[in-house]
Amino acid sequence: MSVLERDPDERVQVLDEDGNVLDGATVPDLSDEQLVEMYRTMKLARHFDQRAVSLQRQGRMGTYPPLSGQEGAQVGSAMALAERDWIVPSYREHAAMYVRGLDFDQTLRYWMGDERGNALDGLNIMPVAVPIASQIPHATGLGMAIDYRDDDAVAVCYFGDGATSQGDFHEGLNFGGVFDTPTVFFCNNNGWAISVPREEQTATETLAQKATAYGFEGIQVDGMDPLAVYQVTRGAHDRRRPLRLPRRGRGRAVEAEGPDPTAGGVPARPRRPRRRARRRHNGLGRGGGGRHHRDGRVDRAAVGGKHIRARVRGDASTARITDAVSTATPGAARRGATRRMSTTQNLTLVQAVRDGLKCELERDDDVVVFGEDVGENGGVFRATQGLHEEFGEERVFDTPLAESGIVGTAVGMAAYGMVPVPEIQFSGFMYPGFDQIVSHAARMRTRSRGRFTVPMTLRAPYGGGIRAPEHHSESKEAFYTHEAGLKVAVPSTPHDTKGLLAAAIRDPDPVVFLEPKLIYRAFREEVPEEPYTVELGDAAVRREGTDVSVFTWGAMTRPTLEAAENLADEVDVEVVDLRTLSPMDWDTITDSFRKTGRAVVVHEAPKTGGLGAEIAATIQEEALLYQEAPVQRVTGFDTPFPLYALEDYYMPEAARIEDGIRETVTF
Asked: Pick from 133, 191, 122: which is nearest to 164 by CA?
């Protein structure tokens, strides 16, 4: 039945509170053994929860989110899944993760602060997501990847009713509806978001009916009834094939109503869904209640045993802080680099972007390009022009205008093994996706202890110079270099653009690839037709010199070289184009400074907190005894990027760079 035909007050239920089958209800086809296992797992989950809460109250562990009252919803839904299916938890789904193969000991290790508790080797479980609702687009991305690979699987995403107020909830469900993904959005609705009641979270009659707006079915189910939850979740499997069903075909939003002991206004002792399951087992004549009771016993000593607490406290190592943050492997090593340099073509920088994307799409079927207007339109700067026609709508496609959704779905696709290359129309539009970039893309490797990586290349035109309105000319590269796990590349020539882009796409970690739009079409350069890479982390000395080193990147490389030529008769200037800002090529920087003894850093971002300060500090630390003058910074001003009437004044140009160089060499 479609949600459009369903009474919004109707709720799926199989058992009453005494464990009896309701009149007209369909009982899932589960064996006695499966029913006992369901009951046993719910009982075990409750005991684990009690032990964990006790440890927290004794001061033996930090924050812990209890699950009591949600055992029926979690166990019932997780048991309905096949081995190939995926779950995407928030931070309270300990029972669902246990059903899917993660031991409670491992869960306890995580909540006791040991990084090894994140290990998810071989499990189709995304790691715990603490930011509210931010995991929802990941589940949609998993669904998109499942579709692309033509796999027979489903992704189930868990979240609470408070999460439905977040933007990622709306973007994740909207993407799921637009791309018709095999995703189940599972809302554990207890009526509260910590202390805020549901009626202050939403004006809709039910949470399930929100699915209607996104184009798929919404179902209410009694979260205290594990059989009803099992039945509804299992129903998602019946709707996932064939792949290309009409809209409203496969997506499903489930609203499971049940209590949560952390909610305001809920009695201190929550209702127990396992009682309903126990009564069902003991009262329906399936082999006798006594046997079921014995079979359903749990080994309480095995849950949260003393050996775990001893290990957590006894062998924690500071070395694990940097374990699995990112790989130092050059991008070219990921799938093999081709460095043949036979025939060339005369390209602008934006044409080199397109050529680099084309080569990587041809080389690797897992590469997909998507974003706002990148399909038939070819992007606002035509960087993807013709790729949609050449590679088809499954490889190059448009998305809704939702940056968090774009980045979040890319994270899910990458975790599944694909190589997404999302485009954000302008770097100033990346802010809505910032949480996904720094909270998830950058941290997924370390959060999962290497189980998942995010081989995502996030492209964005950046910088000023094109007379654009507010937010179209931002230069905030320092934001991304500050986040461990991210790599940041900024090319300055067509040749480097194609090679760096290939290295970024082949890299196993997320790369923020910032394209200086001021020089998209400023000049041409000979670029090899064949695929090749320029290694991430290698700077280029664009001009040799002995008197002063000038460090720069992106669009600022050209006015810096112009300034160096203008001063050639009086100062011998060395110009170093960093090309990659994270990892930064400190060897080239310090070697150049030791040769000249003087340094100038040029960037169009604001001065305070910019990367010029980082370069100056590292020079002080690594080469102080070679220093002949203070490090000079020629930068943008500590203001928002101005409207275009003052754009030329704001951006460093050759004359201002010359002044900075003169001031340094005459100190």
From this structure: 133
Using alpha carbons only, how large is the chain's radius of gyration in Å? 28
Choose, from 138, 292, 472, 603, the residue flagged as catalytic.
472
pLDDT tens digits, 368-414: 999 999 999 999 999 999 999 999 999 999 999 999 999 999 999 99
Q: What are phi and psi of 75, to 5 degrees?
A: -70, -45
- What's the rounded Cα separation, in Å, for the pair 666 and 230? 77
Among 258, 257, 247, 239, CA closest to 211: 247
Token duo for residue 111: 């909540």
Given a contact cutoff of 8 angstroms between Cβ atoms, the answer to whether 595 and 628 are in contact is: no
Q: What is the DSSP string of 265-295?
A: TS-SS---HHHHHHHHHHHS-SS-HHHHHHH
- List the Cα angle 8/9/10 in 5-degree steps: 95
To the query of whether residue 471 is one of the catalytic residues in this protein, the response is no
Residues with Cβ within 8 Å of 354's Cβ and at least 6 positions away in sequence, in order, are 382, 383, 384, 385, 386, 387
> Do 215 and 221 meet the contact criterion of CB atoms below 8 Å apart?
no
Residue 487: the pLDDT is 97
pTM of the prediction? 0.89
Peptide bond into 242 cis (omega under 30): yes
